[in-house]
Amino acid sequence: MSLVFDGLILFLLIAFGIFLIELSSNTQRWNKTKKRVLFFISSIIWLILFYGSFVEPRMLVTYTVPITLSDNATTTLRAVVIADPHLGPYKKSAWIERVVQKIETLDPDIIFFLGDAIYNKGHQAFDLWPLASLNAPYGKYAITGNHDYLNGGIQSVKDMLSQTGFTVLENEREQILVKEKSFTIIGIDDLWNGGNLTQAIDRSLPSEDLKILLSHNPEVVLYTSAREIDFTISGHTHGGQIRLPWIGSVPSLPTLLGRFYDKGLFFVQDKPLFISAGIGESGPRARLWNPPEISLLLISF
């Protein structure tokens, strides 16, 4: 499928390029005013196609979000979030090396990987290897996304994440102590592939603990069991991948939450939900007004 999208993008770039060359010639087919208008419009389309396909997807920005989860907050946790690299035809290990270099400048206390490591094949997970050099005092935690299950790739993804030092949470949780305060990380498998929040919290959760949920798909916040969660962190949407000013995501989003919940910080039933725009692409290689992002969450509790 990636070859189809690449072929379409190449065809459009060549077609508009030829059209621009023809407009620049001395042809008498159009009058001067019409030629100028057509040249301007065609140039804009060509530039947008080129920029969205080959420039913006190679940009990498950091998005810092402070969030307070307690009225008497005394501790702030620097949590780095990466999601949806979709390693394969568009992004490989060199891209992950760039991501690692950026993360190292953020001095993270903890690192969350939110799934969709691969595009569609298990061997693509090998390109995660640069993540092994990342260190965080409170650990590195990962969950799976829907693309990780394509063509039987899930075990390769889990194995590679483990080899790079991540604890892969599979409908389970882990308690962490930070400066005499504890919080619980709950991680579930992809919702379309066995993710089960009820199973992850089937035993009594410490009522005094902050409860952070890692779920690839943000629609988990609609579940009744999510009422026990203080803060949910998700990916999956890519922020729509292709966006327009004042409009937001151009394509529909693959969640039950709707188009409004595309990327960033939201509140659902008075509970915070953060959705990462991710660092990779699926479908077309393009991004527009939506560069790949690493998120730094400053979680105070």
UniProtKB/TrEMBL annotation:
<dbReference type="InterPro" id="IPR051158">
    <property type="entry name" value="Metallophosphoesterase_sf"/>
</dbReference>
<keyword id="KW-0472">Membrane</keyword>
<dbReference type="GO" id="GO:0016787">
    <property type="term" value="F:hydrolase activity"/>
</dbReference>
<keyword id="KW-1133">Transmembrane helix</keyword>
<dbReference type="InterPro" id="IPR004843">
    <property type="entry name" value="Calcineurin-like_PHP"/>
</dbReference>
<keyword id="KW-0812">Transmembrane</keyword>
<dbReference type="Pfam" id="PF00149">
    <property type="entry name" value="Metallophos"/>
</dbReference>
<feature type="domain" description="Calcineurin-like phosphoesterase">
    <location>
        <begin position="78"/>
        <end position="239"/>
    </location>
</feature>
<protein>
    <recommendedName>
        <fullName>Calcineurin-like phosphoesterase domain-containing protein</fullName>
    </recommendedName>
</protein>
<dbReference type="InterPro" id="IPR029052">
    <property type="entry name" value="Metallo-depent_PP-like"/>
</dbReference>
<feature type="transmembrane region" description="Helical">
    <location>
        <begin position="37"/>
        <end position="54"/>
    </location>
</feature>
<feature type="transmembrane region" description="Helical">
    <location>
        <begin position="6"/>
        <end position="25"/>
    </location>
</feature>
